[in-house]
Amino acid sequence: MPSVTSREIHLVARPDGPARADHFAVTKVEVPEPGDGEVLVRNTWLSVDPYMRGRMDDVPSYIDPFPLHAALEGGAVGEVVAGRAPGVPVGATVAHFLGWREYAIVDAAAATVVDTSLAPPQAYLGVLGTTGLSAFIAVTEKAPVRAGDVVYVSAAAGSVGSIAGQLARRFGAATVIGSTGGPAKAATLVAELGFDHAIDHRAGPLREALARVAPDGIDVYVDNVGGAHLEAAVDAMRPDGRIALVGAVGGYDSPAPGPRNLLTAAAREVTVRGLAIGRHLHRFPAWTALAAGMLADGTLRTRETVHDGIEAAPAAFLGVLSGANTGKMLVRLAQGQDVTL
């Protein structure tokens, strides 16, 4: 096999405060030949996600920190261009976790062959990946939606929130409310994604806006932001309400204080449950079956925000932290070198 050169993104410094472009560097490396049970994957799509900000800090968490001066990792989809691994043939499209680079040597056991006749390859980083699964688990297990519920979703124009709101409608919600940043994204929630009400949280106090569209309170809150959004939702909860803690994008760069009104949640007997998606991967078959049908009949709509080229990955990542995306934030990679055994 000829030598393959790959560009990859390294973390070169840990942030003390907000992440910046100079915390990253583009590095060229020579990629070795795949060994037994390995495949060489030419990545075509990369995922950047808010949780990655936590991995930039050298602190204990549910997932290891990114090491310095090494390629970062994250969800990716690509084409197998070399290797001799049973079940993962050359030419197959696979999803794996060695993103942030143009080429990756992947253990065949960690590469999942995906069906591109069901959906485009990048869908397996979004609606058919852990993004969609997170929304599904949130509204079916962590904060189950029941017929007639009033449901509120924060970061509702983002990758998880946009799906969670549509699923809430699917599972019987009477009213679906989403908050987002900016009038254009708020309009998209109602016009394209089927939300009943959209709150632009930059336009005024969130608590007052939520009270206007849900004067009798809410039954379910899917939290993707934390901080003030969570506090406003607790104030609006009806007795026996349910909250799913999916993410806290508002506090990844600078941790936000916890809600000051947890006694309200206690008095109303509100259930608050966290979601660590790695514990729910066994639910993928159920989610894929449901999502495939909804995508086919048009009842589940998705949006993407795309940056082009490996060098754009840091900007895409910083953009998802600041709310620059509508739907899933993705990085699309150009056609790479020809590789033959």
Characterization of this structure:
This protein has 341 residues and is an alpha/beta fold. It has two domains: 4-126 and 303-332, Quinone Oxidoreductase, Chain A, domain 1, CATH 3.90.180.10; 130-278, Rossmann fold, CATH 3.40.50. 25% of the residues lie in helices and 26% in strands. It contains nine helices and 15 strands. The strands form three sheets. Strands 3, 4, 5, 6, 7, 14 and 15 form a seven-stranded mixed β-sheet that branches. Helix 6 (227-236) links the parallel strand 11 (218-223) and strand 12 (237-245). Helix 2 crosses helix 3 (159-170), helix 2 (130-142) crosses helix 8 (284-297) and helix 5 (206-213) packs parallel to helix 6 (227-236). The longest helix is centred in the C-terminal third of the chain and has 14 residues, at 284-297. The N and C termini lie close together (5 Å). 48% of the residues are buried. The mean pLDDT is 94.
Helix content: 25-40%
Question: Structural class, from helix and strand content?
Answer: alpha/beta
CATH class of the largest domain: Alpha Beta
Number of DSSP E strands? 15
Give the topology string: H per helix, E per strand: EEEHEEEEHEHEHEHEHEHEHEHE
Low-confidence stretches: none
| Multimerization state | single chain
Question: What descriptors fit this protein?
Answer:
341 residues, alpha/beta, Rossmann fold, 2 domains, 7-stranded mixed beta sheet, 9 helices, globular
What is the strand and helix layout of this fold?
Layout: E1 4-11, E2 24-31, E3 38-47, H1 52-55, E4 76-83, E5 93-96, E6 103-107, E7 112-113, H2 130-142, E8 150-153, H3 159-170, E9 175-180, H4 183-191, E10 197-200, H5 206-213, E11 218-223, H6 227-236, E12 237-245, H7 262-267, E13 271-274, H8 284-297, E14 304-308, H9 313-322, E15 328-332
Parallel strand pairs: 8-9, 8-11, 9-10, 11-12, 12-13, 14-15
Antiparallel strand pairs: 1-2, 3-4, 3-6, 3-15, 4-5, 5-7
